[in-house]
Design a protein that fits this description.
By secondary structure, this protein is of the alpha/beta class. The protein is built from 10 helices and 9 strands. 38% of the residues lie in helices and 20% in strands. The protein has a 6-stranded parallel sheet, sandwiched between helices. A 3-stranded antiparallel sheet has the order 7-8-9, with helices on one face. Helix 7 (151-163) links the parallel strand 5 and strand 6. It binds pantoate.
């Protein structure tokens, strides 16, 4: 596995690689969800293609007072995981490599980013779009893989790629879960024992909503209230949002449709977890 730590080395890698490249952008602290993204990237790359993983904890997408400083950075464990997953190139730039001290250009999406996590994390998706644009320019992938747990992020990146004409295929990967239903996330390791025990309530509440929506045509309000009540039954859960939205435009819906997506964000102590489910 080739380890690339500068923009210049990334450019040289692109020039000599000459084969189909599939990128898995990450912030490290890799878990089995990331390994599934890498597996899908390998399939998408084909027998002659290569898989590149980027690891960069992007300061631009952390709002002030959030967990940027304590975000886990297990460098050698991540490196070993990439190696054993058969990754061809690990792109691991430093912050000075990625951002000039007087950087003044960013990339922003103005419709999908205004709902859900965009409301509670102002500037977050500007940071994501900016860094993903930079990674796309540096690694020049033919395709890139993103997880569906971050459904809003995936939708925004698809829109960005469409609107800015990036010649890159975006591949969405189904959410990988722990045995009790909790969606895999690098942030799960922040949870205390009690919080970890209660966190699967997100998945349980979303599955119950999907079942309830099947039995009778439902108004969004009553379904949202049921999900809120179920999540609130976990004493340590503090709801950020529970919303039923249209999966294409992420705008709130009044009734369940074939395109409905239930999305939730819930804090357990200092840890903010997100999850979602399609209702159809
Ligand atoms: O999903 C993530 O890990 C990050 O938001 C991403 C896409 C790597 C951009 O920093």
């Amino acid at each position: 596995m080739e380890i690339i730590e500068s923009g210049q080395a990334a450019g040289e890698f692109v020039l000599r690689s000459g084969k189909r490249r599939v990128l898995v952008p990450t912030m490290g602290a890799l878990h089995k969800g990331h390994l599934e993204l890498i597996r899908l990237a390998r399939t998408a790359a084909g027998p002659d293609g290569g898989v590149a993983v980027s690891i960069f904890v992007n300061p631009l997408q952390f709002e002030p007072g959030s967990d940027f400083d304590r975000y886990p950075r297990p460098q050698s464990v991540d490196e070993e995981l990439c190696r054993s997953a058969g990754v061809d190139a690990l792109f691991r730039p430093g912050a000075q490599e990625m951002y000039f001290h007087d950087q003044s250009v960013t990339v922003e999406e103005h419709a999908l980013a205004n709902t859900l996590c965009g409301k509670s994390r102002p500037g977050h998706f500007r940071g994501v779009c900016t860094v993903v644009t930079k990674l796309f320019h540096l690694v020049v992938p033919h395709a890139a893989v993103f997880g569906e747990k971050d459904f809003q992020q995936l939708a925004i990146i698809r829109r960005m790629v469409r609107d800015l004409n990036f010649p890159i295929e975006i591949i969405g990967a189904p959410t990988v879960r722990e045995a009790d239903g909790l969606a895999c996330s690098s942030r799960n390791q922040y949870l205390s024992e009690d919080e970890r025990r209660q966190a699967p309530v997100l998945r349980a509440a979303l599955l119950a909503a999907r079942e309830a929506a099947k039995t009778s045509p439902r108004a969004a309000d009553s379904l949202v209230n049921e999900v809120r009540a179920r999540i609130s039954s976990a004493p340590l859960a503090q709801i950020d949002y529970v919303e039923l939205v249209d999966a294409d435009n992420l705008q709130p819906e009044k009734t369940v449709t074939d395109n409905s997506l239930f999305a939730v964000a819930v804090r357990f102590g200092h840890t903010r977890l997100i999850d979602n489910i399609r209702l159809a």
